[in-house]
Design goal:
The chain has 3 helices and 6 strands, in the order ααββαββββ. It has about 150 residues and is of the alpha+beta class.
């Protein structure tokens, strides 16, 4: 019996016609930013996430216990996100309605639901809004400049 003409089912050929490349957007449209964020969270992909952050990126959230806003830059954001991606079993990010958008699309407020599963008995549900400031690069791709977390967490 000869297997010389058989395809290896454990090393299938890359399917370039199924639209799988549609999971990641080129970010030339605002929807592409949200598609890529959802992809990065679903697949816990810090490479895709990091490519979306401007070098001067700032993340801000409200520390309700202290009653203050806390901010950090791109490097700290990558460390925090890496830790979340590594320590969770599953992340489900669902984007809801765009609540507000500036006429030039540089500011977008959008509601979301995030389910963080650390293990079957430790699941956190986060609901809220992101308030994003965006800018385009020389290739007309959108980048995140600022992320203000307006969630219940």
């Amino acid at each position: 019996m000869s297997f010389s003409g058989c395809l290896n089912p454990f090393a299938p050929k890359l399917d370039t016609e199924s639209g799988a490349s549609g999971l990641i957007s080129d970010r030339k449209q605002i929807d592409g930013v949200f598609t890529n964020l959802q992809y990065a969270y679903s697949f816990k992909d810090t490479t895709i996430y990091g490519e979306m952050l401007n070098e001067d990126f700032t993340f801000t959230y409200r520390d309700y216990e202290l009653g203050v806003n806390v901010s950090w830059g791109r490097d700290e954001e990558m460390k925090v996100t890496y830790g979340l991606f590594q320590n969770s079993q599953k992340l489900d990010l669902i984007w809801n309605d765009i609540v507000a958008i500036s006429s030039d699309s540089t500011n977008v407020v959008r509601s979301f639901n995030l389910t963080i599963t650390f293990n079957p008995t430790d699941i956190i549900l986060v609901d809220g809004k992101v308030n994003l400031s965006l800018a385009k690069d020389a290739e007309a791709k959108w980048y995140l400049v600022q992320w203000i977390d307006e969630s219940n967490f």
